[in-house]
Specification:
The complex is a heterodimer. Chain A is mainly beta. Chain A is about 0% helix and about 55% strand. Chain A has no helices and eleven strands. Chain A has strands at about 5, 10-15, 20-25, 30-35, 45-50, 55-60, 60-65, 70-75, 85-90, 100, 105-110. In chain A, strands 2, 4, 5, 9, 10 and 11 form a six-stranded mixed β-sheet that branches. A five-stranded antiparallel β-sheet of chain A has the order 1-3-8-7-6, with no helix packed on it. The N and C termini of chain A lie far apart (about 35 Å). Chain B is mainly beta. Chain B has no helices and eleven strands. Chain B has strands spanning about 5, 10-15, 20-25, 30-40, 40-50, 55, 65-70, 75-80, 85-95, 105, 110. In chain B, strands 2, 4, 5, 6, 9, 10 and 11 form a seven-stranded mixed β-sheet that branches. In chain B, β4 (about 30-40) and β5 (about 40-50) form a beta hairpin. Chain B is globular, with a radius of gyration of 13 Å. Classes of the chains: A mainly beta, B mainly beta.
Chain lengths: ~110, ~110
C-alpha cells in the first residue's frame, strides 16, 4: 500500500514551461522531504519542509507543505533540461524512517 | 570524501544462490538504511540501523538479513535469492534519528533468474 501518492507519474514538457508535481497522503507527517534521482544514481535531497503551510524556494523550484501536513507540491518555473529526473517525496513520521512516494518522472526537452 | 559506496554495482544470481551487498560511509553517520527500488513502487525500506550495534526491520524485511559491522559498514545478505528480489538496492546513511537528510549510494542492480 502506497501511503504517499505522487501525481502525475510522468510529465514531459518543453524547456521554458512550468510544471507542478503533487504528493498526497491521508496521514500526517512531521516533515516531508523532496529528492531528485538521476539515472544510475541514488536520490539526492532537494529540500525538507517541516511546518504546515511552509513555502521554500530553491532557485526556480518552489516547495509547499500543506497546512494539515498531509500533502506537498513542487513547482518548477521555466524548466530546463537539467531539471530532468525522477522526483520523489518522502514523509517522516516515527523516528528516522521515511515513507517514499513512487515518484514523478520529469522529462524536459530543449 | 567518497560519501556512501556500494559494491557490487551489478549482479546476476540464480534462484537459490546467496550473496552479500556491501555498503560503507565515510561521513561518520550514526544511522544507516537499506532500500529496494522497483518500478512504480518507489523506495521501500528493508532494514535500518539506528546506531552501531543495533538493527531493525523495515517495511519489506522477508528474505534478507543485515549486519552493522561497525560504524562505517552495513551489509545486506540474501540467503536464498528469489526472482521477486530482482530490484535495485540502495544503501543510505544519515546523521542520526529524526528527519535528517539521507545520503544515498549509487545502487546495486540485482537480477535473479
Amino acid at each position: 500500500t502506497q501511503l504517499l501518492e505522487q501525481s502525475p507519474q510522468f510529465l514531459s514538457i518543453q524547456e521554458g514551461e512550468n510544471l507542478t508535481v503533487y504528493c498526497n497522503s491521508s496521514s500526517v507527517f512531521s516533515s516531508l522531504q523532496w529528492y531528485r534521482q538521476e539515472p544510475g544514481e541514488g536520490p539526492v535531497l532537494l529540500v525538507t519542509v517541516v511546518t504546515g503551510g511552509e513555502v521554500k524556494k530553491l532557485k526556480r523550484l518552489t516547495f509547499q507543505f500543506g497546512d494539515a501536513r498531509k500533502d506537498s507540491s513542487l513547482h518548477i518555473t521555466a524548466a530546463q533540461p537539467g531539471d530532468t529526473g525522477l522526483y520523489l517525496c518522502a514523509g517522516a513520521r516515527s523516528w528516522g524512517k521515511l515513507q517514499f512516494g513512487a515518484g514523478t518522472q520529469v522529462v524536459v526537452t530543449p | 570524501n567518497a560519501g556512501v559506496t556500494q559494491t557490487p554495482k551489478f549482479q546476476v544470481l540464480k534462484t537459490g544462490q546467496s550473496m552479500t551487498l556491501q555498503c560503507a560511509q565515510d561521513m561518520n553517520h550514526n544511522s544507516m538504511y537499506w532500500y529496494r527500488q522497483d518500478p512504480g513502487m518507489g523506495l521501500r525500506l528493508i532494514y535500518y540501523s539506528a546506531s552501531e550495534g543495533t538493527t531493525d526491520k523495515g517495511e519489506v524485511p522477508n528474505g534478507y538479513n543485515v549486519s552493522r559491522l561497525n560504524k562505517r559498514e552495513f551489509s545486506l545478505r540474501l540467503e536464498s535469492a528469489a526472482p521477486s528480489q530482482t530490484s535495485v538496492y540502495f544503501c543510505a546513511s544519515s546523521v542520526g534519528q529524526g528527519a535528517y537528510e539521507q545520503y544515498f549510494g549509487p545502487g546495486t542492480r540485482l537480477t535473479v533468474t
